[in-house]
What we know:
Elements: E1 4-7, E2 11-16, E3 19-24, E4 27-32, E5 38-41, E6 45-46, H1 49-57, E7 61-65, E8 71-75, H2 84-122, H3 129-145, H4 149-165, H5 167-170, H6 188-209, H7 229-236, H8 239-252, H9 258-261, E9 262-264, E10 269-271, H10 273-288, E11 290-293, E12 298-301, H11 302-319
Parallel strand pairs: 1-5, 2-6, 5-7
Antiparallel strand pairs: 2-3, 3-4, 7-8, 9-10, 11-12
Helix pairs in contact: 2-3, 2-4, 2-8, 2-11, 3-4, 6-7, 6-8, 6-11, 8-10
Amino acid sequence: MGSTRYIASMGELTRKDNSLCFRKDGKNVYIPIEGTKEIYCLNEVSINTKLLDFLSSNNIIVHFFNYHEGYSGTFYPRDKYNSGRLLVKQVQAFSEKRLDIAKAIVKGIGVNICEVLYHYYKHNKKEVKETIDWIKNEFFNRVDGSSNIKELMAVEGEVWQRFYSDFKYILPEDFVMNKRVKRPPDNPINALISFGNTLLYTKTISAIYRTHLDQRISFLHEPSEGRFSLSLDISEVFKPVIVYRTIFDLVNNKKLKVEKHFEKKVNYCLLNEEGRNIFIEAFEERMESVFSHPKLKRKLSYRTAIKLDCYKLIKFIIEDKEFIPFSLKDGM
């Protein structure tokens, strides 16, 4: 799937000459190093330091997932894109302009949720108009009026909540969500959202790695130890566009079915292997799908759009050029 390799089975990943070799059940599967930028380990995979050194010298990122399809962590090659000047500026922006950047991100979330809902409004789901009107008439004013991050996060929480409450008009009954439950997800829709958000988060980690931004200094989310919080910031505006549109398409076109593609245990629900493969394929297709960028006058993929948002943030930090995250409506 493009520059991304997914490993869904248990096995051992090693270096073999100038290639990667995945060994499972006594058989070898060779993965060319050429063109590989990131690897997803979705099962128990054994590795050694010789392999890590090889991955690092080829700037390949590896994302690890646990049994509950949750994100465990990332092997991150040594930073070759370090920039002391930008780091100083990024810290400065956090102390002086954090609220401005955070407001831009939350507005971006609202713009893209509105656009996704409008698609369904046009297709006779008139009930979603209430949320669309609330976003247009109240949400943006409340974002502008927020005087601190806590107030802003409350408005962000409300726009997501209203979006979730509209799922009953968009999805069939067996995929309706009572409430958002994350760790672990407790029903099929929560399982899809958690897995999709985690894939997007890790895609954003990979995008940021290839810029000079520092992953640890975020603006909307609190910078915290143990996670790349800037990836949470950058990925937020893409969730409605990439994760939720993928979910709605797969469910409404009956490519994912509750009885066929999920494992339900006592207090959690996960995609089974077939369901996971279907989701990954659709997610990758969406990442690679293109749209026309009005300013650049060329076609871009959503994968490139994520990286472009990183560069927009750098422009704001260094040149004070207004930061407007990706908008589905404007295609930029």
